Amino acid sequence: MNNSTGIVGAVHGDDQPDSNSVWLSIVLGGLSMLAKETGITVFLLNVAYDVYRNWASLKKTILDVRWSEETHQFGRRVSRVLLSMGVLLAVRLALLQGSLPRFSQQDNPTAFHPSLYVRLLTFCYLAAFNWWLLLCPATLSHDWQMGSIPLVTSISDPRNLLTFIAFFAALLFVYRGLLDCEHQRHVPVVLGFLLLVLPFLPATNLVVTVGFVVAERVLYIPSMGSVILVVYGAQRLWERVPKLRKSIMAFGILLIAAGTLKTLARNVDWSSREALLRSGLQTLPHNAKMHYNFGNYLRDSSQPEDAIVHYREALRLWPTYASAHNNIGTLMVEFGPAEYHFLEAIRYSSEHINAHYNLGQLYR
């Protein structure tokens, strides 16, 4: 989060951030986009936090209809940040040749559902699910494509309870932050909430369509907000309810121990291709791509019979999976089944080069 050290870092005190710190924030924010596009959200985070920290002077300017020196400085900072963000977005779009990336139904099934009602329910649930992963990262996977999370098709779906709790909590934080604008007694709450929400907005699919439903990599910056909120909440309880201090201490130790053990377990999962794929299958056995990838591993490991089993499971879960049809076709000994799978691959993906090539080789 070094790229937020400009406005966010400097405004934390009584002094206004100088020009150098603002430009440093802009440069670091731009560099962060080289790693992940969500780095652009740090600019919005800086502006939002600057508005919060300078609310008193902004309010006075609005009421008096007269700009003060503080609001002039604020305006210059914000204009620099927003202008730089616009330039960086333009450069990014230029690199994409003027259009946003295009994704398939396999990448993000929810985005292709014809019902706006289903899309809205599912996307809201996915946002709540991501925030839940920050609090309880028990279910982790390297890939969440192809129906890993079933669609929320009805308001009676029990998963909507998590959505309601998450968004109700978000509204409470917003309400608390608005009340705190005047006296600013709970700055960590506002900063933590901004870190939790703003960097995650592009991944919600509520602003733009992205090529995933869940991606743990987009939770790095929001995790900082989650930590700030949890620690600040524990601190407030520690100060206000002394009799809970032993429980808070025990909970903190337990949380650190659980996080350490989970990290060690994930390190083992990422130690090899086989270990990663097996952990993914264990976590998301209904993910067609997991079975497809594990089938590829088994094929590469000279285990064609087992590979066919997983390719068939991938096709059962996702019947239009062109690559699974193509790969299982390469393992068919008889002409008929091989031809069938190559033709099915071409049927579902007419531009599938490997399927065309393999079918041509079969007809030779």
What are the main properties of this structure?
364 residues; mainly alpha; Serine Threonine Protein Phosphatase 5, Tetratricopeptide repeat; 16 helices; globular; dolichyl-phosphate-mannose-protein mannosyltransferase activity; transmembrane helix; transferase; TPR_rpt; endoplasmic reticulum
Task: Write up what this structure looks like.
- Residues 98-170 form the DUF1736 domain.
- Belongs to the TMTC family.
- It is an enzyme of class 2 (transferase).
- Keywords: Endoplasmic reticulum, Membrane, Repeat, TPR repeat, Transferase, Transmembrane, Transmembrane helix.
- This protein is mainly alpha-helical and 364 residues long.
- The chain has helices spanning 7-10, 19-35, 41-53, 55-64, 69-95, 116-135, 160-180, 187-197, 220-240, 245-269, 273-283, 288-300, 304-317, 322-330, 335-348, 353-363.
- It is globular and about 85 Å long.
